[in-house]
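User: Here's a structure from my thesis project, written as structure tokens. My advisor, Dr. K., wants to see whether a designed sequence matches the one we expressed. Can you design one independently, without my sequence as a hint?
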């Protein structure tokens, strides 16, 4: 005998209805979770892009110099010296990057190691803030380096670190060679790029700070991001700089003022070095120099790219 429940449903009908509701919930829940996860990851990528551009601007400001000056940045003084007697230069643990030279303020932090990214809505966790890959540019006092910011893995999601080329100057007139003071960021030196290898165009004035070389023709889309990076790194060693996939700021400038570049006319997107994504061809990848030579964007897969010689 079947008992009638509210609105004329039997007990069996009610059990079946509840079972179907549970089954639908089980099937839909992973889809909702996956969608929310993808949205979370996309938000973090957008925040990394914004941070990348902010750090590029920071390197050009006076704040960069005071952050590397051990007399001003006293909290990091122990790390802010360069041992010029050593052929291998250790990384400098910068720890914190601030908008200004006020090292006591709590509201001017751009990025800080082992803490969430300030003003981040996705709670993106920073891992390290380093000056690394330090190498002498010449026999004087100028060095090339890399501002490096890495991020902690958030569940299944990992993000490629930010890596921005920069230069430093040391004080060779005071202290010991094993503990030289760092004076400046991007200081001009006698040896800057004045000419380019065959197949590349000089962007900027010969010998000026920031001048670089860019390939006049794009390379075909690579099978992986690592393959593109390896192709640039395999170019003949040049004492004035490093070959790499052109970064955002270099490719955009080349698009704006280059004279002999083919394909780079403000309508073609190309892959850049300071993208953050993995080698997964189904992931999103960052491209620059399209849409009027001043845009950034994300797309699936890999696109053409160029190698730059930068110092």
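Assistant: Designed independently from the structure alone:
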């Amino acid at each position: 005998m079947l008992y009638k429940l509210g609105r004329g449903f039997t007990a069996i009908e009610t059990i079946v209805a509840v079972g179907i509701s549970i089954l639908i919930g089980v099937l839909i829940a992973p889809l909702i979770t996956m969608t929310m996860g993808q949205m979370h990851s996309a938000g973090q990528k957008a925040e990394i892009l914004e941070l990348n551009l902010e750090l590029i601007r920071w390197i050009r400001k006076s704040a960069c110099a005071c952050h590397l000056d051990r007399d001003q940045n006293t909290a990091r003084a122990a790390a802010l010296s360069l041992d010029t007697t050593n052929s291998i230069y250790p990384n400098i643990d910068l720890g914190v990057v601030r908008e200004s030279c006020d090292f006591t303020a709590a509201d001017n932090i751009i990025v800080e190691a082992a803490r969430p990214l300030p003003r981040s809505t996705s709670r993106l966790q920073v891992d390290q803030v380093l000056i690394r890959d330090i190498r002498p540019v010449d026999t004087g006092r100028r060095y090339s380096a890399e501002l490096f910011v890495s991020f902690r893995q958030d569940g299944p999601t990992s993000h490629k670190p930010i890596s921005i080329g920069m230069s430093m100057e040391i004080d060779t007139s005071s202290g010991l060679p094993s503990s030289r003071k760092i004076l400046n960021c991007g200081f001009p030196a006698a040896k800057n790029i004045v000419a380019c290898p065959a197949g590349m165009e000089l962007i900027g004035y010969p010998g000026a700070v920031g001048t670089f070389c860019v390939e006049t023709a794009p390379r075909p889309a690579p099978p992986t991001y690592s393959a593109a990076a390896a192709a640039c790194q395999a170019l003949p060693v040049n004492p004035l700089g490093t070959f790499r996939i052109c970064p955002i700021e270099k490719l955009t400038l080349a698009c704006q003022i280059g004279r002999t570049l083919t394909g780079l006319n403000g309508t073609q997107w190309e892959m850049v070095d300071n993208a953050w994504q993995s080698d997964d061809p189904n992931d999103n990848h960052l491209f620059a120099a399209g849409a009027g030579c001043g845009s950034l964007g994300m797309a699936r897969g890999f696109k053409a790219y160029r190698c730059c010689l930068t110092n």
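When you compare it with your expressed construct, this may help: The CA atoms of residues 109 and 288 lie 27 Å apart.
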